[in-house]
Specification:
Number of strands of chain A: 6
Strand content of chain A: 25-35%
Structural class of chain A: alpha+beta
Helix content of chain A: 25-40%
Radius of gyration of chain A: 20 Å
Number of helices of chain A: 4
Shape of chain A: globular
Largest sheet of chain A: 3 strands, antiparallel
Largest interface: A-B, 128 and 129 residues
Strand order of the largest sheet of chain A: 1-2-3
Oligomer: homodimer
């Protein structure tokens, strides 16, 4: 190695393939239309199990390597059995994991080697909303904070810029911060 | 049993305890302030693991009966290893499980015996957003549909009303359909 070699960065992100995919979808935008899917089956009480197996995109159906399941329930303080995380906690996990994958991808794109990344996410909620006690209180979070602890070969300013870019390109950050139309119906 | 007996409904939801909690929080609204939390640790590439253990509410800290984890990753078609569901799929699971718990709770409150409940949720996404190909395309879902299959002792109109009430009181439905402030920072 000489001083002019590019430092070797290995965060486990295949950035060349991502750049290729970006170019391919620029040339064929109809392939960029994806459909994500989950199937949630009621178990008992407030306990349910969601299964994630298939999605479509690039003009075809795809199966995950394995089916993934997420159990959800309410805690014992709500007179439930606590057989899983609550749905709001699962939403926070979705947000944190989306931003964390973004940090790994952007860091790799910028040649930054990561050693550890941890995102701690908190969401406040006034239960007077979902319990219907006060109609002026919303059902969801009043606000969310995400705090990153990152150990990496980069300055604080560079890490802050990586986090900002991750937010800018995060699907779930957009879902949480902006409204999405949801149509709910009986089959 | 005589014909004047109230039908026995057992969906596994302790509706008396919930009514009690609602009254207790009406009398002491400060106890209704909850904080939900998740901690997401980067594993490698786009793979992360979120852990959900603690939350606060009713004026104190609580631990779940068990720690719950959610692995997230990107699929092989994005040159990732597919070690978990994608963050958008996890967000869909959070939405479906919240509405499903609501259906069980509202049905019990209305004396409706459920036999099975299944929610299938789809979210469309144009990847030109998160890939930064087209700045006019949003990163998140273009729209979401949730379709319930319910087997229960109730008319179609009653089931539709139960689903509507579940939406009205769902935390995650509110999170998805309305904007929430998210503050992201480096520790």
């Amino acid at each position: 190695m000489t001083s002019t070699d590019t430092p070797t960065v290995d965060n486990g992100v295949n950035i060349e393939a991502l750049r290729g995919a970006r170019q391919a979808l620029t040339d064929a935008p109809e392939a960029a239309q994806f459909q994500w899917q989950a199937t949630c089956e009621w178990v008992r009480g407030t306990h349910s199990r969601s299964t994630i197996t298939e999605f479509s995109g690039l003009g075809q159906q795809h199966s995950h390597r394995l089916p993934y399941t997420v159990d959800a329930d309410h805690p014992e303080v709500f007179a439930s059995e606590d057989n899983g995380a609550t749905p709001p906690e699962i939403a926070l996990a979705a947000l944190a994991s989306c931003l964390t994958a973004g940090v790994a991808t952007v860091a790799t794109n910028r040649g930054v080697q990561l050693r550890s990344v941890k995102a701690t996410v908190h969401g406040g909620m006034d239960l007077q909303g979902i319990l219907g006690i006060d109609g002026d209180v919303r059902n969801g979070f009043d606000s969310i904070t995400v705090t990153f602890d990152i150990d990496a070969d980069a300055s604080r300013a560079d890490l802050e810029a990586i986090i900002a870019q991750s937010q800018k390109r995060s699907a779930v950050y957009d879902v949480v911060t902006n409204p999405t139309t949801v149509n709910v119906s009986l089959a």
